[in-house]
Design goal:
four-stranded mixed β-sheet; Cytochrome p450; alpha+beta
């Protein structure tokens, strides 16, 4: 078997659009990732993704950004503002946790600190297991932790949430509940197509656990990376904070530049299920490994300029290229939450008051408005438990409400 590495924008696109290539990076994290949307292939993937699209439409994301997220953000930030400080990693997980639970279909009836802590514990264990390929911890220990978290998640969150939706679907079938009154979330959609999709209780539980970790983990880390770059920029360019808070489209541009430099998954790994061709020339044999180096492609100088490895939100982006590069993937496994996290790329005629900015930008904007600045007594610390370039702690000081 051979290994083929693609590290340019065109090469990564050619690799990720090839439907003969199957996911191969998440086998080690099978306790969470086995048979979930991200690891399915072919017809099974298409059916599952089509079902999920009933939830993940642009209108749904726009509704969440405007109606749901502001209240969630305000409520979650309140205790951090009261004490005047926060760890952006912890704060980011808490902000995105409730949002992710809403669209995944996990209820939090208590709305208590203890309930939040329990769900947060589970989601963090799921994230470690899902990204086991890059973990520097003992893999057997990570899997044991994930198994224990899955058991707690099942008992306390997943099983009761599933029961409520099954009862709602039974009432809908009996004509006592309307379509509009049904929960609009992934769990409900999958339960409605349970037999058609060939689901089992274990697969359904893993799928919802996957949505929980993917939404919370990537969004929290993306927010911290964006804040790091923006705080650096504001230190080097006096008056920038005020300029960014006065121009939301500019702030989104800063966030997109950070997203380009920090893809949630720096590489995508695929395995050829049959002989295939990538691009115009390269022949790939059955079983060959294909590495799509998204991190390098997003820093390709021929596309993004000689300073492609540097944070420069004012760079010129070529036509047909996203300002965040290939951070959200490409092809059939592209992230369905792209518009929710990053918002819609503005056009020349975009009106600032009628634009979808993405929840990362809204989170960053709120932090800047509350005076977020690094804590000089507690500098940020990289995450030592993963080979991915993420932060482990990022303390900031905040102004009171």
């Amino acid at each position: 078997m051979s290994e083929h590495v693609f590290s340019t924008v065109r090469g990564v696109q050619d690799a990720l659009r090839n439907t003969d290539l199957e996911q191969s990076m998440y086998k080690a994290g099978a306790i969470i990732m086995d048979d979930v949307l991200l690891t399915l292939h072919g017809a099974e993937h298409h059916k599952r993704r089509t079902a999920a699209f009933k939830v993940f439409g642009r209108g749904y994301f726009r509704y969440y950004e405007r109606e749901v997220f502001p209240a969630t953000l305000s409520r979650t930030l309140e205790p951090f503002l009261a004490r005047g400080s926060a760890d952006l990693i912890d704060c980011g997980y808490r902000v995105t946790l409730n949002l992710t639970a809403d669209f995944a279909g996990i209820d939090r009836p208590e709305q208590s600190p203890a309930e939040t802590e329990a769900l947060l514990y589970c989601v963090k264990r799921f994230s470690e297991a899902a990204t086991l390929f890059h973990s520097t911890r003992d893999h057997a220990e990570v899997i044991r932790d994930a198994a224990a978290a899955l058991a707690e998640f099942d008992t306390r969150f997943f099983a009761p949430s599933r029961l409520r939706r099954e009862e709602a679907l039974a009432r809908f079938a009996a004509g006592t509940l309307t379509e509009e009154e049904l929960p609009r979330d992934v769990l409900t959609v999958l339960l409605r197509s349970y037999a058609e999709l060939g689901l089992t209780p274990e697969i359904l539980r893993r799928e919802i656990a996957f949505y929980m970790q993917a939404g919370a983990h990537s969004t929290a880390n993306s927010t911290v990376h964006a804040m790091h770059h923006i705080l650096d920029w504001c230190d080097a360019h006096p008056g920038s904070r005020e300029a960014l808070l006065a121009d939301r489209l500019l702030l989104q541009r800063f966030v997109h530049e950070s997203l380009r430099l920090h893809p949630a998954s720096p590489v995508a790994r695929r395995s050829a299920g049959c002989p295939t061709r990538i691009g115009a020339q390269l022949e790939v044999a059955t079983g060959d490994d294909v590495i799509a180096d998204i991190h390098s492609a997003n820093r390709e100088t021929a596309v993004f300029g000689e300073d492609a490895a540097v944070f420069n939100p004012y760079r010129t982006i070529p036509a047909g290229v996203w300002p965040f590069g290939l951070t959200f993937g490409f092809g059939m496994h592209a992230c369905m939450g792209r518009d929710l996290d990053g918002g819609v790329v503005p056009r020349a005629d975009t009106r600032a008051d009628d634009h979808q900015y993405g929840i990362v930008m809204l989170f960053v904007e709120s932090l800047l408005r509350h005076g977020a600045r690094r804590d000089p007594s507690h500098p940020p610390v990289p995450d030592a438990n993963t080979a991915r370039p993420n932060w482990g702690r990022y303390p900031v000081l905040l102004d009171s409400p």
